[in-house]
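**Sequence with structure:**
===
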Amino acid sequence: MTMKTGKEYIDSLRKLDLNVYMFGEKVKNPVDHPIIKPSLNAVALTYDLALDPLYEDLMTTKSHLTGEKINRFNHIFQSKEDLVTKVKRQRMLGQKTGSCFQRCVGQDAFNAVYSTAYEVDKNHSTHYLDNFIKFLNYVQEEDLIVDGAMTDTKGDRSLSPGQQIDPDLYMHVVERSEDGVYVTGCKAHQTGVVNSHEILCMPTMAMKPEDKDYSICFSVPTDTKGITIIYGRQSSDTRKMEESDIDVGNSQFGGHEAIVVFDHVFVPNDRIFLNGETEFSGMLVERFGGHHRASYACKVGVGDVLIGASALSADYSGTAKASHIKDKLIEMTQLNETIYSSALACAYEGSPTPSGAYLIDLMLANVCKQNVTRFPYEMGRLAQDIAGGIMVSQPSAMDLNSKEIGHYVNKYLRGVNSICTENRMRVLRLIENLTLGTGAVGYLTESMHGAGSPQAQRIMISRLGNFDHKKQLAKNIAKIDDEKNVQCVTENKESKDKTEQKSKTKKQEDKRKKMN
């Protein structure tokens, strides 16, 4: 088993025959496309850091299957320490890339499928875990990237999968054979799929018995016949094609999303990990959601970059000593560390599933993600406040470098005299990237809707809130006796009966008097 370098990883992608479309045209060479390349660089970094002794503990571990050294992104969590290390790794990579590095979904899918397959097999005498272990061994041995795919496009969300006018709006089995199944559907918001070797598909929601064809989990190579990848548009994405690293804000790293269409795609039997056992689709969704909501510790690392950029912009404009600027930076830091603390908390409170794989504390993971749906937006607002309006109205790098007008840009956009105008422009563009541009896809909107939109976490928090237990705690402190409630109900009923009887008697007497 040999771990790849970043270059070897990129070379391995060149061997794939991906069917990728962007701007209505097929992309002939995704690896070298200027819009895609920054996202590829972010993934490649996860390979290179795994070979760096300084990051070995965060990036590598021993496979519980083979005992061989592997990249932690291809690992099944075996302890609380594994869960905590993941959180710390997420923050570190966010700090180094200032973007999404696209491997979290795959690891979260691995762990959800592994533990769920174990329990399906136990109940149905199936062989899904054997299938998955065979697949995971292959992934670890080849040091591959796997895209986790859960979200379907869903069509009319007031209808269940089987009630849709177009059944393909949810991934489903359309044909069965002795060797496997054929599936049709579409997976949306697929982070990093163009940079992946495999795509691991899961059902998008808890399924009812009548929707068994939609309760399917499997993995196939990303260049499988019948798969079409349609690359997603991002704000200011074509700046990457202008050959100006200043205006991009973050020219080296980035993320990407796509929709992935499956048109009668064949899945062999040994690549199927769930196939119609609808009562377990909810477990798979819940466990994946929990793991992935904890993964948003990556936003803390990106938040560190945003805080640093905001502080630099204040330094460069001469406002760093202003009390309100200091207060805004403190507020940003407090919000960022709150996300980190809840991510760590759900890891430290993790526990083993029946399979032996560890699962984070689901309540705290949902609280973590609920924080993520809010705090980066407030941090972005504060960053823009500190940066000032020049962040979005400054001229381009081409204007700065122009022989005719460059001297004007250099003269009038300078802040503190000891800082060159170009550096001030660069840090402002970075803030723009993270809060408005391509980086905002991963830092803001993904924070809102990734791993489930805010209401999904609130439903889980309500379900896991254990309000009956908390009511009992309050009763214990207040010395509330429930037996007295029974007594009060009885007494109230007797009192009510007496009152009603008196009222009835009075009405009868009044009636007699009136008749006389």
The mean pLDDT is 96.
